[in-house]
Write a structure and sequence with these properties.
The complex is a heterotrimer of chains A (440), B (478) and C (249). Chain A contains 10 helices and 19 strands. Chain A is an alpha/beta fold. In chain A, strand 1 (83-88) and strand 2 (91-92) form a beta hairpin. In chain A, helix 2 runs antiparallel to helix 6 and helix 7 crosses helix 8. Classes of the chains: A alpha/beta (440), B alpha/beta (478), C alpha/beta (249). Chain A binds chain B through residues 43, 325, 328, 338, 340-370, and chain B through 67, 375, 377, 390, 392-422.
Chain lengths: 440, 478, 249
């Protein structure tokens, strides 16, 4: 039993839970205390030590009036024509959020039908008691966002959920539940960023997604926080028959940045594409664990993650593909490519295949390397300096994935920011979009 | 396809007979007295007994590893006998003529004639029967070249400095649970020493045979290749068919000094258990080699036997420009389980490693590749290329790939690729439309799948390996 | 040689052949043409015994035997050869190893002894020359990394080595340029003999300029709707198939 586990339990009593969620919460609190704390020997935390987190003081929940952050928001938000939900340190900011459609509601404001949807789907994708921080999310539950798109409906605008962490010492439990009924579709962007380089809080986030028969979702998860941040998050997805998911994830580094993706093909004909980019620098750490499970035949998965790891940063990628005995005719591919740009940086990657069906086509590949010296030589021979060439090639390495982002506003938002991170001038891109060239 | 192939005839494990011979076998159980007995039996010096006891102490504190993707009933280490030797071996025979004819017949039956005139030309053999080495052939011829090839017990007597210097230098006593157990109770095994600049004039080979019931085999092999030398070594293994599981926990240590090269090949055909998964050998082996500057170690393994295999022949690439290679075919059928792979630890500059792993799962078996490629901060310019392919035959088996890649040097280049596929219906149809029967078609496709590894084996054994694969696959393909 | 009587066959619940009749006598060359989806490839697959093709009615007599009593490889050893439309790649299995095994299987079936490696290599090299395939292809994996044309020529080479009595060429001409087409056609023509018959399944008339058929059949909606001599092929080239498909309904 660690101090962190105790502190966490103490915090549960300071929540104000909706009574209809109480039983879920109580059970989770018990499970949380019963689970062993991960050590270096725990396979899924092998490279991401939790010693620091263990010593972290878990502050109280953000309860104050939300601070006025209008200018900051203006400067940091993607100019997305969307239904916007803003949370500051986990507290809903009604002033900067937009008027919400019937499909989007906070748990605390849910009507009876919506409560029924939450109760039916919340916490059902994975066995919570086996995932420590999902259990914690349940134990800490007092509110969340429900996005429920009924049959044959298409959400007319993207939903844009923004989570801002200020310098305030607070703990945040961010919970999102997305339920797409048969034949529906939606586009959802989750955006995390810091309002201040000083970060004293801890964020635990969990997004659960149910994609019904023939429904389709575009989902973006942007973790663009400052480097002192500590964030453990997860995205759990169930795909039913012929469901489609297009997912994109990006993380800058942080003091602790661990994101788990659990994706289940539960119905035949499902298709999922998941792409991710990570760029930890300085002393930061990024850890993506993805687990794609094929439980049924005739589904397709394609996953590609790329990272550039510099300075003394550390990147961990663990991508598992599991093919159940019944999941014949599966097509699954996983690729993880890493650029290691400093002698103090470190990459640990583990692409796993676990296969119990024989009529499948699966492949994974992983590379760790530095920049292609031939390409650099070519650029240098055209007059670029070595460092210019390296920056250009590094950016190019991740830009291959950025270029595949389907939502043009998200693409246009991310590309220059990442370019800037690599010291690149974006004026050419801007010029070309001014001239009417599409970037997306 | 499944039906056709399921009808294929089943062939028995050919090496499954038992030799009736009077043996001296210790009662089951493990304690310090047992270790003292083994040590005394071999008239070992005091330091070695201490070394064993230290290992035993460490082992008692350790617990069995559970991370491998295998499942088996807990082993009762007190129910195993830790020493068994044919009575006739009490006094080690000085020549083949003194060896019990029953023993010689055993090896003839296994296709390994020991008389030098009948033996495979160019291959020197050390044969280990339960806990003792029976005979080593071509010793004189090898000694002419300065090559030492004898049992490790003999080496302890004759070359104590070499043993003292290198035993446990690659796999320390406390390296892992099974290595510690082996260090405590190892009975025999082979010792090879190639002097500076010598290219060993023949292939060296050790053949391991478990015969006695309820005994474990704990052999220890040590190969030292001095600067600029070369040796190619091959080991083979078989055991009788029994309903009980038997334990085999070996340790192999390779030392390749500057510019030396060691090629180590294994054809592992321990009894795999029967169709229902009853019996078979538990094969828990630690194999590791250290490469000094410009040295090269190449592991090639064809694993078709054993009920459970837990084995990761590894290379510590300590010297600059050293090279490590791992070529593996692992075939599992019925209820066999294999968790095997390699570790390539890059320490020196410009070190290179290649891993080619081919896993074939059939029946209800489980076959996992587990590998580690670690690039230390100082390993400038290190390179690794890994390719793991799995072939599934039937839908009740599993094929898994768990590669760990850890890089701490930006100038290193690591590439890993893995695929999983099955023998496709189209491939089967093409072969059959050209007149091949299903069995021939499958064995041809599987052999093609393994070709990159087989070509690394010494010629005579490549053919053997191909045949072994056919036998192991029979009755399984589905 | 071959007598197909009232053949019905289905693939995955879908009826493809619906009462097909065809008799091929020794030495004859029959061309089967027809629109896409008429069942042309199904015929070859059914005759050679491919899994997934279910015969629901009718019978086929091949050299006096009931074809459906025979396994895939038995049909092959009896002399039935299918040149595939899309030959599959078998990585790692060398072409020559594969071919020798096939030739030996056939020889054993006839009661002949296996060929020695040298004997086999001689005939294999001769055959590869005749289809203008470099000998290097013998050493490569079966069809592994071959171009479309090389795969087709490899099929014809196999045909030469196996000396079948009935050759079914399934769209062997598709994807070939004119030079490759000539090579393939020359190979086929060289094998024509009074004992050997051919069924040439094709979509295009141009192949029949090189391999002149004795009969041309039109396959539409699962049966033969018209039979003629080689002039029928020219007529089809001109008019298309629509006028015949109506007749089939």
């Amino acid at each position: 039993m660690t101090d962190f586990q105790h502190q966490a339990i103490r915090l549960t009593s300071m929540q104000r839970p909706e009574t209809w969620l109480e039983s879920l919460r109580t059970k989770a609190a018990d499970d949380w205390l019963a689970q062993p704390w991960p050590t270096r020997k725990t396979e899924h935390w092998k490279y991401t030590p939790l010693q620091n987190l263990q010593k972290t003081i878990l502050h109280a929940w953000g309860r104050e009036e939300v601070p006025l952050l209008d200018t900051l928001l203006e400067n940091n938000l993607a100019p997305l024509n969307a239904y916007r939900l803003i949370f500051i340190d986990g507290v809903f900011d009604p002033f900067n959020s937009s008027k919400l459609p019937a499909e989007v509601v906070q748990f605390s404001k849910a009507n009876e039908d919506q409560q029924a949807v939450v109760l039916k789907y919340l916490g059902t994708i994975i066995e919570g008691e086996r995932h420590l921080f999902a259990t914690l999310s349940n134990a800490w539950l007092d509110d969340g966002v429900l996005i429920h798109v009924p049959r044959n409906q298409k959400l007319d605008k993207p939903v844009y959920i923004v989570n801002v962490s200020t310098a305030a010492p607070v703990t945040t439990n961010q919970r999102v539940l997305i339920v797409l009924e048969e034949n529906s579709s939606a586009e959802i962007v989750e955006h995390y960023f810091s309002a201040d380089p000083v970060q004293q809080g801890f964020v635990n986030s969990l997004t659960e997604i149910h994609i019904g028969d023939n429904a389709s979702l575009q989902h973006y998860r942007l973790n663009l926080e400052e480097e002192q941040a500590q964030h453990i998050g997860a995205v759990h997805v169930d795909l039913q028959r012929n469901a489609r998911l297009r997912g994109f994830a990006i993380a800058l580094g942080a003091s602790l940045m661990r994101i788990d993706y659990q994706l289940n093909h539960r119905g035949q004909g499902g298709e999922l594409d998941l792409q991710g980019v990570y760029v930890p620098r300085n002393n930061q750490l990024v850890d993506y664990h993805t687990n794609i499970c094929h439980w049924v035949p005739h589904c397709r998965s394609n996953e590609a993650f790329r990272g550039i790891v510099g300075d003394s940063a550390q990147a961990i990628f663990n991508g598992r593909i599991y093919i159940h005995q019944h999941a014949q005719k599966t097509l699954a591919e996983l690729s993880n490519k890493n650029l290691l740009t400093s002698s103090k940086a470190e990459v640990n990657t583990k692409p796993e295949l676990e296969i119990y069906a024989d009529d499948v086509r699966c492949a994974h590949g992983a590379t760790v390397s530095q920049l292609n010296t031939n390409a650099r030589y070519y650029l240098q021979s055209r007059g670029l300096s070595r460092s210019e060439a390296e920056v250009m090639l590094s950016f190019g390495f991740i830009n291959e994935l950025l270029e595949q982002i389907a939502q043009p506003v998200v693409h246009d938002y991310l590309q220059p920011r990442l370019a800037a991170l690599f010291g690149r001038d974006n004026s050419l891109n801007e010029a070309s979009s001014l001239l009417g060239d599409s970037n997306g | 396809m499944s039906e056709q192939v399921e009808h294929l005839i089943k062939k028995e494990y050919a090496a499954g007979f038992h030799t009736n011979i009077v043996s001296e076998t210790l009662p089951p159980g493990l304690n310090e007295d047992v270790i003292r007995f083994i040590s005394a039996k071999k008239s070992e010096p005091e330091w070695l007994l201490d070394w064993r006891l230290k290992a035993y102490k460490a082992w008692q504190e350790m617990s069995e590893p559970t991370w491998a993707h295998v499942n088996y009933d807990e082993i009762d280490f007190q129910a195993v006998s830790y020493y068994s030797a044919p009575k006739s071996m009490d006094e080690k025979p000085k020549s083949l003529d003194e060896v019990d004819p029953e023993l010689l017949r055993t090896y003839e039956k296994l296709g390994i004639p020991l008389h030098e005139q009948a033996a495979l030309a160019g291959v020197a053999m050390d044969v280990v029967f339960d806990s003792v080495s029976v005979v080593t052939t071509f010793r004189e011829k090898l000694l002419e070249a300065g090559v030492i090839f004898c049992s490790i017990s003999e080496a302890v007597q004759k070359y104590p400095e070499l043993i003292k210097k290198y035993l446990g230098s690659v796999v320390p006593q406390k390296d892992n649970f099974y290595a510690a157990l082996n260090s405590a109770v190892f009975s025999d095994g082979s010792f090879v020493y190639i002097p500076k600049g010598v290219r060993c004039p023949m292939e060296l080979s050790t053949y391991f045979r478990i015969n006695e019931q309820n005994t474990g085999q704990f052999e220890r092999t040590l190969i030292v290749a001095e600067e600029g030398s070369y040796v190619s070594y091959l080991e083979g293994c078989t055991a009788p068919m029994r309903d009980e599981n038997q334990l085999h926990a070996a340790v192999v240590e390779l030392v390749a000094l500057d510019n030396a090269e060691i090629k180590y090949s294994t054809v592992q055909n321990w009894y795999p258990g029967n169709e229902e998964g009853k019996g078979g050998i538990y094969n828990f082996v630690t194999k590791r080699g250290v490469c000094h500057t410009n040295a090269k170690i190449s592991w090639t393994q064809v694993e078709t036997g054993s009920a459970v295999t837990w084995k990761y022949p590894s290379c510590v690439l300590r010297g600059d420009n050293s090279v490590g290679e791992f070529y593996s075919v692992a075939l599992t059928n019925n209820y066999q389980q294999a968790d095997t792979g390699t570790k390539m630890i890059h320490i020196g500059k410009n070190t290179r490693s290649t891993i080619i792993s081919k896993g074939i799962s059939a029946g209800k078996s489980s076959n996992a590749y587990r590998g580690l490629v670690r690039i230390n901060p100082g390993a400038e310019g290190a390179r690794n290329y890994t390719q793991c392919d799995s072939l599934l035959i039937g839908d009740k088996c599993g094929a898994h790939t768990f590669p760990y890649i850890e890089s701490k040097n930006p100038t290193a280049v690591i590439e890993h690729e893995a695929t999983t596929s099955k023998v496709s219906e189209d491939q089967m149809f093409l072969c059959q439309q050209r007149g091949l029967d299903a069995e021939k078609a499958v064995s041809m496709i599987v052999n093609g799948f393994c070709r990159e590894v087989f070509k690394e084996l010494p010629m005579e054994f490549a053919v053997e390996a191909g045949k072994l694969l056919e036998v192991s696959l029979e009755g399984s393909v589905g | 040689m071959l007598r197909i009587t009232d053949l019905f066959a289905r693939v995955e619940e879908k009826e493809i052949l619906k009462g097909l009749n065809l008799t091929v006598k020794p030495g004859e060359v029959h061309a089967i043409m027809g629109p896409n989806g008429a069942g042309k490839s199904t015929l070859g697959n059914v005759l050679s015994g491919r899994e997934g093709y279910e015969v629901t009615g009718g019978k086929v007599e091949f050299n006096g035997k009931d074809l459906f009593d025979l396994e895939i490889e038995e049909r092959a050893r009896e002399g039935l050869f299918l040149a595939f439309q899309y030959p599959v790649e078998i990585p790692g299995v060398s072409n020559m190893e594969f071919l020798k095994a096939a030739v030996d299987a056939k020889r054993k079936h006839k009661g002949d002894s296996e060929l020695s490696a040298v004997e086999f290599m001689k005939v294999a090299r001769e055959a590869s020359k005749r289809v203008s395939l470099d000998q290097a292809f013998l050493k490569r994996g079966v069809n592994e990394g071959f171009s479309g044309g090389e795969k087709k020529r490899n099929e014809i080479m196999q045909m030469m080595l196996l000396e079948p009595s009935l050759c079914i060429l399934d769209e062997t001409d598709s994807g070939l340029d004119i030079d490759a087409l000539q090579v393939v056609a020359n190979g086929v023509n060289a094998m024509r003999s009074p004992e050997r018959s051919f069924i040439v399944v094709t979509h295009y008339q141009r192949l029949l300029d090189y391999i002149v058929p004795d009969y041309v059949h039109v396959l539409a909606n699962g049966k033969i709707v018209k039979t003629g001599d080689k002039s029928l092929a020219l007529e089809l080239e001109e008019k298309g198939y629509a006028w015949l498909e109506d007749e089939a309904v």
